[in-house]
Amino acid sequence: MSAIAGEIIEPYASALMSLAQSRNLTEDFGNDTRLLLELLDSSAELKTFLGSPVVKPQDKKAVLQRITADQVNPLLRNFLMLLVDRGRILFLEEIAKQYLVLLRKLNQAVLAEVTSAHPLTEAQQNTLTEKVKAMTQARSVEISSTVDPNLLGGVIIKVGSRVVDASLRGQLRRIGMKLAQ
């Protein structure tokens, strides 16, 4: 994260957290920010539209009002309007992600980024959750999963800076390295 972005993202995410805590809405805002991140992730057009200096602020506000209508807490919607007014809406994705980092810290939770060859079943997710809790002593675990058929089988788990490669591709690579010695 660049220094300028850090000077913008941190204060806005912290302000959003303060607002959420003062109204006892930390989890609601967490769900809403996840929804916003999904919207931004699924629509490159929306990202471009919000980040464009050519698009008028009132047009950005109108679109944000429309897409968040009944799905986002009105206080969070007002926060989005403030971001537009201050010319900071292009940082929405980073602010939302930072809010979730603050929320996980507050809840003593960790984010486990899991890459697997096939979509995980609920039982597999529960097993992973328990293993990550044991590994990190976190109270709860949030799993973000991606599918990568190139792994052949198994999983790669990333929690913070720790990476556990239990994929078939990783095992084959390690065997290949041993054989090459």
TrEMBL record:
<comment type="function">
    <text>F(1)F(0) ATP synthase produces ATP from ADP in the presence of a proton or sodium gradient. F-type ATPases consist of two structural domains, F(1) containing the extramembraneous catalytic core and F(0) containing the membrane proton channel, linked together by a central stalk and a peripheral stalk. During catalysis, ATP synthesis in the catalytic domain of F(1) is coupled via a rotary mechanism of the central stalk subunits to proton translocation.</text>
</comment>
<keyword id="KW-0472">Membrane</keyword>
<protein>
    <recommendedName>
        <fullName>ATP synthase subunit delta</fullName>
    </recommendedName>
</protein>
<comment type="similarity">
    <text>Belongs to the ATPase delta chain family.</text>
</comment>
<dbReference type="InterPro" id="IPR020781">
    <property type="entry name" value="ATPase_OSCP/d_CS"/>
</dbReference>
<dbReference type="GO" id="GO:0046933">
    <property type="term" value="F:proton-transporting ATP synthase activity, rotational mechanism"/>
</dbReference>
<dbReference type="GO" id="GO:0031676">
    <property type="term" value="C:plasma membrane-derived thylakoid membrane"/>
</dbReference>
<comment type="function">
    <text>This protein is part of the stalk that links CF(0) to CF(1). It either transmits conformational changes from CF(0) to CF(1) or is implicated in proton conduction.</text>
</comment>
<keyword id="KW-0066">ATP synthesis</keyword>
<keyword id="KW-0793">Thylakoid</keyword>
<keyword id="KW-0406">Ion transport</keyword>
<keyword id="KW-0375">Hydrogen ion transport</keyword>
<dbReference type="Pfam" id="PF00213">
    <property type="entry name" value="OSCP"/>
</dbReference>
<dbReference type="InterPro" id="IPR026015">
    <property type="entry name" value="ATP_synth_OSCP/delta_N_sf"/>
</dbReference>
<dbReference type="GO" id="GO:0045259">
    <property type="term" value="C:proton-transporting ATP synthase complex"/>
</dbReference>
<dbReference type="InterPro" id="IPR000711">
    <property type="entry name" value="ATPase_OSCP/dsu"/>
</dbReference>
<keyword id="KW-0813">Transport</keyword>
<keyword id="KW-0139">CF(1)</keyword>
